[in-house]
Design a protein that fits this description.
This protein is an all-alpha fold. The chain folds into 2 domains: about 100 residues, no CATH class; about 160 residues, no CATH class. About 70% of the residues lie in helices and about 0% in strands. It binds zinc ion. The site of zinc ion (ZN) has 8 residues, from loops.
Length: about 260
């Protein structure tokens, strides 16, 4: 029974992932992402239903358009597979709770944001504000009503503004060189969604993974294997690392507190 549920939620995730691909590509282009046939981006051939099956079609077509044989971006199967895995992970972590759909919507938004940030080096306000609002709703629904209105507010309820202030400070003192203001907005939602200990863990993890990733890029550039012409300060987007941190925290429930306990 559990296995059936897992398979269903995974397939559901890949379908949402394939929708997210279209959503990101058409976002802010004026083209509706609900209506309109999907087309090959090279030859504009209308795609049949069997060319649109998540993951499966990419494998069957071996990553090429049936008509013009141009290569289909790896973005498609990666986002589809990743969304399937993350949906399955969230289902296994939280179970069939009433707010599971909310978590899945938040996850979808985060995936869309990181793909968009990779492609355009910016997080669209519409996406990040929706994420902040959804996270705020999750926070309200996961805390007892009394706690939300009693003073002093718990650290968890203040985590959003605290993490926001942390990023906004670095954005301000560096004139936007170290951090974008978009990262600060994202951090506001991280605090709402994960609370103080979980949120701090996600941000710390983002810094560590981001630093390691940057060092690898520098190393590859030094030994001239890589043709990636990335200038580190401005071009490696930080939001995908924050989003990575959020997912690791959501799926493992690790927190700043558990790190301290581990060190002790
Ligand atoms: Zn084509």
């Amino acid at each position: 029974m559990l296995l059936t549920n897992i398979i269903i939620i995974f397939i559901f995730g890949t379908i949402i992932g394939s929708f997210l691909n279209v959503f990101v590509i058409r976002y802010n282009t004026g083209v509706s992402f609900v209506t309109g046939r999907s087309r090959c981006l090279s030859c504009s051939k209308d795609l049949h239903w069997y060319e649109l099956l998540p993951l499966f079609s990419f494998l069957m077509l071996r990553g090429k358009c049936l008509k013009c044989k141009s290569k289909i971006s790896y973005q498609y199967p990666i986002v589809e597979g990743l969304t399937g895995i993350i949906f399955t992970g969230i289902f296994l972590t939280f179970g069939l709770i009433p707010i599971l759909p909310l978590y899945l919507i938040v996850a979808s938004l985060l995936i869309a944001m990181s793909v968009y940030d990779f492609k355009h080096k910016i997080i669209p306000d519409g996406m990040v504000y929706t994420f902040v609002a959804m996270s705020f709703i999750v926070m309200c629904l996961t805390h007892p009503l009394g706690q939300l209105f009693s003073l002093p507010l718990s650290l968890d309820l203040l985590a959003g503004p605290i993490l926001f202030a942390f990023f906004a400070f670095f954005w301000l003192v560096s004139g936007g060189k170290w951090m974008g203001f978009g990262d600060a907005k994202l951090a506001l939602g991280v605090g709402f969604l994960l609370g103080f200990s979980g949120g701090t863990f996600a941000i710390m993890l983002a810094f560590w993974v981001g630093a390691i990733f940057s060092l690898i890029i520098i190393f590859l550039q030094k030994i001239k294997i890589s043709n990636l012409k990335l200038s580190l300060k401005s071009e490696i987007p930080f939001a995908p690392f924050i989003i990575f941190g959020i997912f690791i925290q959501l799926l493992t429930s690790l927190s700043f507190q558990s790190l301290i306990n581990f060190i002790k």
